[in-house]
């Protein structure tokens, strides 16, 4: 091999080494980017894990609140049922009171009616006596 061939071979190897260095540099750059992406993914995974734990905690709180609300609604339903019973009882009592008021009115009016009848009987008797007396005087 002569000097010219050697020089050309060295030049070719130099170019290949330069291209290889550029390729290696590019690969290192991609590896660095991948490492940053992997770190971002790890951070994202930690955040998702934390959010999952928070969501589970909030879900438990919401479930507990829903249970309390349902228990309150059940208790309120019972109270409403009791109130309805009381209202029906009051309605029955009012009806009973109205019936007794009517009976009491009849009882209270009875002596007045008897007195009115008695008064009319006396008036009729006096009128009849006067008419009889007048008629006996005339005849």
What are the SSEs and their pairings?
Layout (H helix, E strand, L loop, with lengths): L2 H136 L1
What does this structure look like?
Helices cover about 100% and strands about 0% of the residues. With about 140 residues, it is mainly α. The protein starts with a helix and ends with a helix.
In short:
It contains 1 helix and no strands.
Spell out the key features of this protein.
single chain, 139 residues, mainly alpha, 98% helix
Radius of gyration: 58 Å
Number of strands: 0
Oligomer: single chain
Shape: rod-shaped
The biggest beta sheet reads: none
Count up the helices.
Answer: 1
């Amino acid at each position: 091999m002569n000097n010219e061939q050697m020089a050309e071979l060295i030049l070719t190897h130099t170019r290949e080494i330069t291209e290889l260095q550029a390729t290696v540099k590019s690969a290192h750059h991609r590896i660095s980017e991948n490492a940053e992406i992997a770190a971002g993914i790890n951070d994202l995974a930690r955040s998702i894990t934390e959010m999952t734990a928070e969501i589970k905690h909030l879900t438990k709180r919401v479930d507990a609140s829903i249970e309390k609300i349902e228990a309150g609604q059940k208790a309120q339903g019972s109270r409403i049922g009791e109130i309805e019973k009381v209202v029906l009882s009051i309605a029955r009592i009012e009806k009973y009171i109205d019936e007794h008021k009517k009976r009491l009115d009849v009882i209270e009016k009875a002596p007045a009616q008897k007195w009115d009848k008695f008064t009319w009987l006396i008036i009729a008797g006096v009128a009849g006596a006067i008419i009889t007396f007048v008629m006996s005087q005339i005849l």
